[in-house]
Amino acid sequence: MTDYLLNDFINYRLNRAKETILEVEVLIENKFWNTAINRMYYSCFYVVGAILVKNKIDVSSHSGSRQKFGHLFVQSGKISKDLAKCYTELFEKRLKGDYNDFFDNDEATVLRLFEPTKKFIKKVEELILSN
Question: Domain limits at 110?
């Protein structure tokens, strides 16, 4: 992929992350807790995809993205462990909410994770734009 196309992809993913986190406010207002968790997770997933591409890291799965991100950005101290834990928790809760019968995320969990999710996106975006 050319640098021009890489930049387009990175910008696309950043914009998707920002749009997706905005959707969460509407979901919270309407008490759609599972979908709110899903969208918070995907907003993080999009921004992580952008920073991995920016660093020319190729992955083929959600778990691979989390592992590479953790290795390159959390273990190095570029992203705090607290913010990274939010991403991991969203991953786990999204899986349960999307695939487990009789499991529902709740209001307290969504509200607890909403601000850290926004901080996660902002911090990763800052790293992307600083390079």
Answer: 3-130
Rounded to the nearest 10°, the torsion over CA 47, 48, 50, 54 is 140
Number of domains in the chain: 1
Domain CATH code at residue 13: 1.20.120.330
Per-residue pLDDT of the chain (131 residues; tens, 9 = 90+): 677 788 999 999 999 999 999 999 999 999 999 999 999 999 999 999 999 999 999 998 999 999 999 999 999 999 999 999 999 999 999 999 888 888 889 999 999 999 999 999 999 999 999 96
- Report which of 91, 37, 98, 61 is spatially closest to residue 52, judged by C-alpha positions: 61
Cα-to-chain-centroid distance, residue 53: 14
Report the C-alpha gap between 40 and 115 in whole angstroms.
Answer: 10
Residue carrying structure tokens 């997770």: 41
Tokens standing for residue 98: 């999307």
At residue 82, what is the residue type? D
* Close Cβ partners of 97 (under 8 Å, ≥ 6 residues apart): 33, 34, 37, 38, 103, 104, 105
